[in-house]
Write a structure and sequence with these properties.
By secondary structure, the chain is α/β, with parallel strands linked by helices. It has 9 helices and 19 strands. The structure holds (3S,4R,5S)-N-benzyl-3,4-dihydroxy-5-methyl-D-prolinamide.
Length: 449
């Protein structure tokens, strides 16, 4: 191990109640909203090929023309309670909301820049009604904050000259001021989701970022900060130079999921996911592969089966309304969660060997395992391998706990559970109550003939 001043300051999972709650959330909502939602991926009738929230970086647009969008920000259909109820009805337990994306436009009336809602036709704070609405709906709020800020004169991609360094010092002070301001104005926020931290200028700020993280944690005990915020003094990100996770959870799963438990190194993690291939901010064009609710439910199940949270992104329109396609997906996911969320909330990696029919989850601190079935085998038999000392006490459909399913032990500690899918082509859940094996090693079920 090498000596690190600004590496990770904690090993292993946090055990405090705030992090336990976060760990058990399972499903979250991401909101990307800002000036970029006004053009919605299009400028003078031309489609921008990249992600809509990056349209300012498109050569086709003079930066000043983009920056003037502030004078068009007047979301007359903005309804924080509606956004919160869409999330609640989807079954999300928390929300991550953009306070400031890479373009530097602030959805709160920051004292440290004029590039905020306060100087738009809307004038009013957007963050307060959102934090209050989600809090009232019972969802925890995490504030997304982009360190990279294309609007601030002191931002640099790298620090090459004395002038760069002086400018960036001013930028660092500005960044700290805004973060302390956000934590002070929105004390209900449970965490910060940092982005825009990959450029050399910020990666070189190991000491500053380490001290800033400590200051924020002191100001807001229990604050949740992921691995994307800061690098160690050797420029290592997400994992320090001793390969220890930075921050409270791994924040590397953007538009991708781990494939096995080996990929998550025993850490907490979240996966943040777009519904289209790669659009976070609103894009008028709803094109390319749009994920179905079945796909999104499967990603949620896969994330929870590997000990993570799945955070699904919504990109409200410039007028503050949420597009119908996103509302429809949220309600389809919600319909499934209303029946099956017992297999998602407060569940964790089961330790069982992955099977082809779908994903195992395990209720935290209970001898209860869930089989979330996506692929029904033609045999109608669902294979389960249990550890040596574990037996099946009871097995049933989550939707029909009074009817025991037939279980056949095909080898020692290996079983077939027989179940007929009860609903149309939708994933369903089989529950296993497990128990310690008696010393006779026998089960209550028939041996294979
Ligand atoms: C959560 C998303 N992160 C922003 C982004 O710029 N992602 C591109 C990216 C992703 C990972 C490493 C470097 C750059 C996107 O605009 C979204 O805000």
């Amino acid at each position: 191990r090498i000596k690190l001043k600004h590496g990770s300051h904690r090993e292993g999972k946090r055990t405090d109640s705030v992090m336990q709650k976060w760990r058990g959330n399972g499903l979250g909502q991401f909101i990307h909203w800002g000036l970029y939602a006004i053009p919605g991926g299009e400028w003078n009738g031309k489609q921008y090929n990249g992600a809509a929230e990056w349209i300012r970086s498109w050569n086709g647009i003079p930066k000043s023309a983009y920056d003037s969008l502030i004078y068009k920000f007047n979301p007359i259909n903005f309804n924080a309670d509606e956004w919160a109820s869409i999330a609640k009805n989807m079954g999300a337990k928390y929300v991550t909301i953009t306070t400031k994306h890479h373009d530097g436009f602030c959805l709160w009336p920051s004292k440290y820049t004029s590039y905020t809602v306060a100087n738009s036709p809307w004038k009013k704070d957007i963050m307060k009604p959102l934090v209050d609405a989600y809090d009232k709906a019972g969802l925890d709020v995490i504030l997304y904050f982009s360190i990279m800020d294309w609007n601030h004169p002191g931002w640099r991609y790298d620090i090459k000259t004395k002038a760069d360094s002086i400018a960036f010092e001013g930028f660092k002070k500005f960044t700290r001021n805004q973060l302390i301001e956000l934590l002070t104005m929105y004390p209900k926020a449970k965490g910060l989701w940092f982005d825009g931290t990959w450029d050399k200028s910020w990666v070189k700020q190991a000491k500053f970022a380490d001290e800033l993280e400590a200051e924020m944690r002191k100001l807001r005990p229990g604050l949740i900060i992921g691995s994307r915020f800061r690098a160690d003094e050797y420029g290592k990100r997400h994992f320090d130079s001793n390969n220890v996770l930075m921050g409270d959870y791994e924040q590397g799963w953007e538009r991708k999921l781990p494939n096995s438990i080996a990929d998550v190194h025993g850490n907490d993690w979240d996966c943040v996911m777009t519904i289209p291939e790669n659009q976070w901010g609103y894009n008028k064009a709803w094109k390319g592969h749009i994920k179905s609710s079945n796909e999104l439910i499967e990603m949620t199940a896969k994330a929870v089966s590997l000990g993570g949270n799945f955070v699904l992104n919504f990109g409200p329109k410039g007028d503050g309304s949420i597009r119908d396609e996103e509302k429809k997906l949220a309600s389809e996911i919600g319909d499934w969660m209303k029946v099956n969320s017992e297999a998602i909330y407060n569940c964790e990696y089961s330790g069982l060997e992955k099977q082809d029919w779908g994903y195992f989850t395990k209720k935290r601190e209970k001898d209860k395992v869930y089989l979330i079935i996506f692929n029904t085998p033609v045999s109608g038999a669902y294979r389960v391998k249990l550890p040596a000392k574990t037996a099946i006490a009871k097995s049933y459909l989550l939707t029909n706990p009074n009817m025991d399913l037939r279980v056949e032990e095909v080898h020692s500690n290996e079983y077939f559970i027989y179940a007929k899918p009860t609903t149309e082509a939708k994933p369903f859940v089989i529950v296993l109550d497990t128990k310690k094996k008696e010393n006779n090693g026998g089960n209550n079920y028939e041996k294979a003939k």
